[in-house]
Amino acid sequence: MSFLLLEKVTNLIFPNVCVSCECIIDKGYDLCSECSKKINFLTEHYCNVCGSVISNNIYTCGKCIINLPPFKVLRSVFAYDEHSKNMIINFKFFDNLNYVKIYAKWMYQVNQDIFQDAEVIIPIPLHKMRLFKRKYNQAALLAKELSKLSNLPYIPLAIKRSRNTTPQASLSPKQREKNLKKAFKTSNKEVIKNKIVILVDDVVTTGATVRSCSQEILNSGAREVRVLSLARTVNDCGIIMQKS
Ligand SMILES: [Zn+2]
Ligand SMILES: [Zn+2]
Q: Where are the domains of the chain?
């Protein structure tokens, strides 16, 4: 079979689809033109600490000035809203592991500064009961792929959940902070001691989880924590401020 024919057959069996609406699109693209217009990629002016979208005459948002987060920066690729919901649902609950490569590529390409001088990549851990229910830890899948792209070591088990915390989605911001206090425990201090750590999450909502985990990493001797997530809510009342 010639290469061209083989390619045609492969395209018929495994067509290239839009990661959002799953319509068939040309090879070399990740999104169809309709979806790429709708997805809110966070490329506008943002807070130089937490990454929330702010007006373009200031550098740091009010929340970060009042209460500086333990991480140095937090960056996300796109807003988690009704337009990007499908992308996250496909990724979180179905076996679309092909998406991991695409999403990690996006995270890497638009956040090159996060990788500058960084030394290790660590995912936000899932408690093993939830890992069992969900099958995969999406943050870990992204972190592993980012490690391949950046050539930085991936340390999956450096941080563990110390107890089975109630799912964050069902709690108010105050309850989330309480729920997460001491929710993480470093199991391998040596690998993060004096290091610049990139902490990877799939979706950041209020930021309480990444704050708590970053604090534990710093308490364990890391020099700096930079948080990178695929998506984030932009209208929550935690550290993420409403788009202005
Ligand atoms: Zn689409
Ligand atoms: Zn901020």
A: 1-38, 40-232
Average pLDDT score, the chain? 84
- Looking up tokens 């209460």 gives 67
pLDDT-derived band at 239 (thresholds 50, 70, 90) equals very low
- 12 CA to centre of ligand 1 in angstroms: 18
Highest mean pLDDT among 46-50, 51-55, 209-213, 220-224: 220-224
Angstrom CA distances, 189 to 3, 58, 158, 210, stand at: 51, 37, 7, 18
* Better pLDDT: 33 or 188: 33
pLDDT band at 132 (very low <50, low <70, confident <90, very high): low
Report CA(157)–ligand 1 centroid distance (Å): 35
Using CA atoms, how far apart are residues 191 and 233, in angstroms rounded to an integer? 31
Q: Give the residue from 159, 180, 196, 185 showing the smallest Cα distance to 238.
A: 180
Ligand 2 center to residue 239 CA distance, Å?
7
Q: Could you tell me which CATH number the domain at 40-232 has? A: 3.40.50.2020
Taking the centre of ligand 1 as the mean of its atom positions, its distance from the CA of residue 84, in whole angstroms, is 10
Measured in degrees and rounded to the nearest 5, phi and psi for residue 207 equal 95, 0
Residue 23 phi/psi, 5° resolution? -75, 155
With CA atoms as reference, report the closest residue to 49 among 73, 65, 28, 31: 73
